[in-house]
Amino acid sequence: MPPPSLTLAALAEFSTLERLLLDSGLEALEEALDTLLARVLPDDDPWVSPRAASVLRRALALDADFVRDHPEALFQCLYNRLRWFDAPEAASHFEEGAVGPWSDPGARVWKLAEHWRQQWEAPSEVKPWLEALRPLPGRLEGHERDLRHEAHVLCVAFNPSGTRLATGSWEDTQNVHLWDVATGTCVRTLAGHEAEVRSVAWSPDGTRLASGSRDHDARIWDVETGALLHSLTRQEGQVTSVAFSPDGRWLAVANLGWRVRLVEVATGRVAHTLSGHEQSVLTVAFHPSGRWLASGGSDDTARIWDVETGAQVARISVGTIVRDAAFSPDGAWLALSTVDGVTRVETQGWTHQPLGQGLGPASSASWLDAKRLGVFVHGRLDEVDALSGEVLRTQAVPPQKVERHAAFHPDGERFALTSADFRVVLSDWNARAAPRLLAEQEPVQELSGRAGAPYGIARLRRSTHVFDSRGQSRPLPLDARTAFMLPWDVSPDGRYLACPLSTVSKPPPFRPGVRLLDARTLEPAQVLSAPPVAREDRGPVLDSLPMAFSPDGKLFVAAVEEERARVWRVSDGALVLTLRGPPGNIQRVSFTPDGTRVVVLHDESGHVSLHELRHGTTLLDTEAVVEPDPVYAIAARSPSFAVGRESGELVLLDAATGTQRTLAVSDEALTGLALSPDGTRGVFACADASVRVFDVATGAVLHALPHPDVVFGVAVVDSRVITVSQDQHTRFFDLASGALLAELPGLATLEDVVAQRYWETLGDAPVALHRPMDATPLVHFPDVMEETLLLQDGLLLARGHTQKDFLYVLRLHDPAMSRG
Known about the structure:
By secondary structure, the protein is mainly β. It has 4 domains: 120 residues; 272 residues, Methylamine Dehydrogenase, Chain H, CATH 2.130.10.10; 161 residues, 7 Propeller (Methylamine Dehydrogenase, Chain H); 125 residues, Methylamine Dehydrogenase, Chain H (7 Propeller). The protein is 10% helix and 41% strand. It contains 11 helices and 64 strands. β39 and β40 form a beta hairpin. α3 runs antiparallel to α4 and α4 crosses α6. It starts with 7 loop residues before the first helix and ends with a helix.
């Protein structure tokens, strides 16, 4: 059954798209749009232009997998893409002076998105959705396509037909990828290298792929099946370059150990070890005849070898480091990329003939045909006449601080370019350079603050910003040494931001402490400092400073030195209490829910201590599990306190009476612990994956909660138990019966599940937001997130995982929230 036909006018009604998706599926919607775009379209509709329809189709493609799984999110996805395509305010989120679609006087894609928003919000039953308050990554026009990776990409190569692309990266073991050039999808991952992959090469028939890595290993793979055919281990150093001979019989493997090995592809046998370079070998390339092999290295030479005998035929002194080598298709020339530019070697007599001047340092050079070279230099790609050295055309490329490499498609027009921002860019000579998002250039490193607070802090690569619940950001006016220390905290009333004092003190003596900033003005409001410390006695610098506000915001506790936690009064900065502990670092400090006591975790000694604030009395100091996650629990509405030990013992304390008990509950170390708010019930988890509910008064185990893997987080609220486990799932159980109520993919922050208006799960799937204690997702967002911070009024800060370290600023639109 053919899909319904679409017209430009029909696209002005969002319900048209939604109905087609729900009735016929995503493929039918895509096909209908493709059919529409294949026609000659008028440009007189007030809402939808041909350009808007084209951008709409690309936006749908960017989020196709997500929309297929979550069709209810169609409006959310399209609005967030189209709204930022040419909205006037989009310009502020791109490089200064960048010319983008928003500069077009006839821009109206964003108007279409706003038109849809009015339709979406008109019904009485509005569905929850997430609005992106900043542009999302992903280009909606042009030929460029991004191939996203999990780490820095080091090498790239097209197969002989140009239909596939191979890439090598820094990713752990999963570091060789094969991509479909037409769609930009990853079709296979070749796992096994234990360090970054520095070179990839295709066999002449495209059935084999070779890869070389810093792990001193080269590998030969079957492309169709992904099978590892040969592992060429024990190279003399990191493998820097691999190349197949034109007949596919040989593989050349170069390494930092000054050697090149010639390997028989069929057997994996080393036929020759080529010695002669006096420093690292960085590149190898076969002559089209297969008779000779060229190598270049950091000894400022290129060498020519006889493939059959392994004998050195020529030594060519270049005078600088040779980074890359490539023979022309007719075999007449050898092009060498060097620190000084590109140079040539005439192969008839192996004579060196420099190629022009002024090209600059070149990291790679490829022959586009027998007369033209594609050369990548810092900040641009050049097409160069191989005989005269004349630059025929050039394309600017955003510079990066790392070396990048380019590979050219067999047609000579398209290319792939590696990047330090975890991607490979597929483009062509005629592509107009797209404006670059500022958020892509300064990725977020870490988020800190307090869930539900009106402010959150994002530490970016070069700066630190504070965000309010409207999504507005301000740079923090602090010295760099302070601004990049973590964590930060926000007072419960949102009045203060807390950050470590700079570790630089002029003049001495050094006074460790914490600075409070007024959250509205970002001006210093208070300094909470410890007694002066002589520079020679100051101890190690603390890169991460444990600290916390009391629930009422009147007190502040921090471990600004080893062994001690100090408590200050916020109003005047007075030091009111010093809590001493065993030698070593303190991992965490926190107040009990009633604010009358302080918990201190000592990671080096493996102790948990509980201190009463009125007189500074130590109520409990006991051995505990503190790694990887602290195992202790506090009852929200009673003075009950519990600690789990490596021995499988459970320490229970009634803080009101000082009564302490020790229960032997397991032969395995405790991994998680929780108490019910009234302190009558407890839940403990052990390293053998067992989870038990027990009666606090008697210690009797009431029932077990079945789990397939070790639980490392437990919470009890009302009549439910919530657990998070190493199988990357969050589970809800009935406290009274132990029955499993719900099982969610991803991990939740248990404090947020219990106490916050919204909470989220993070894992291998797109992030999902939930209402309090509700296991049914409220809304999803396309990216997999590494870290999130949910602020007041549904403002979400997030650090992307799929879009590596991209800073998302999202607003949750929830009809229930607007109703109070």
